[in-house]
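Bench notes, afternoon.
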Amino acid sequence: MERVDGQWLMSDFDGHKADCIRHIAISRDEQARRDAIGDYLVNEIGEHYLKGEICIPTIAVVASEQADSDYVPVLCDCWVFWYTPSGDTLKCVSGGNHSGLMSLELKDGKYRVSSFEQTADGAGWEPSARRIFGSYYDVYQNIHSNQGVQEAVRREQLRYYLKRHGLHYRYYQDYGWPPVEL
């Protein structure tokens, strides 16, 4: 075993060390994209909601291109949630859905959202979703309209956020609903 970029890897006896290093780089790049999207959702979109104490976005990536250039399109179904802690529970104060095409730029080694084309509200939603998501519309629709998928993504990303920030809550709760265990 040897330590590469902070990760323990098997020695290259079978010729796969380069594949492992490439996989680690791809994973870090994907997380950097998610972090940029999350920052954008909190700072640009979350500003328009009734604020709690903690704003935590949920990001379901429908499709994304590999970063071969400084521009990366990301089709996503995102949610912004504001929470107020109460004991061991994060109580949701406000939130909403924001689906569409996020355009990310890589500048000075860091991603940032350069534009966000969202689906329309009301009667314009389906035509705009079909136009934006194109051949990925069915994948988007399967994520967007499936409550089980949405809750699983939300729970997983809440756990990640809490771990990353050293917070110890056991539940989250939407208004009028029972608490959900994390």
